[in-house]
Amino acid sequence: MLASVDTPRDQLLRLLVQHSFQYSAEPVFTLASGRKSRYYINCKATTFMSEAMPLLGQLFFERITMIEDRDGKRIAAVGGLTLGADPIAYAVAYHSALHGMPIQAFSVRKEPKGHGAQKWVEGFEQPGARVVIIEDVVTTGASTLKAIDGALHTGFQIVKVLALVDRQEGGREELQQKGYDLEAIYTTEDLMRLAHQ
What we know:
The protein has helices at 8-19, 44-47, 52-71, 86-98, 142-153, 171-177, 188-195; strands at 21-23, 29-30, 36-37, 39-41, 77-81, 104-108, 121-123, 130-138, 157-166, 182-187. The protein has seven helices and ten strands.
């Protein structure tokens, strides 16, 4: 009998739980919003790892090609708020080039550049381009909306928001209210389930 082989999704989930996830019975972790939580997710501890980058590239690229197949239109680029989205966007760009279907990467600044052209976005810039906003973790949706704002200033057409982890704490609903669809590779439940095995 053949041993079961972990899928790329399984492999990346294991890396996230091992390197990016902390849990406490009491709410001891302070989030960016100021709220306290029983768990802390620092995706950057995983997304910057060499082992994670091929998995990120593949999983996000697969989701993006599903959007393209459904809409019949190409996605030109992916990116989001620096620093969390950066390694994911770069992984997608690299993976897409290997498959002969190049998707460019961009990075949204937290504030527009204070000199020169005072740009919101670095990297790919093409007004009217169809783009996907990338997030590492979505909690309330505030940082995602900031990335969307910067992308809109650049003239991008935002097709979807793709997140690595949805904390399931209102971010999806906040984005939907503003007219943006969120899709996540994992939820907090996925991480909790593996962490408690």
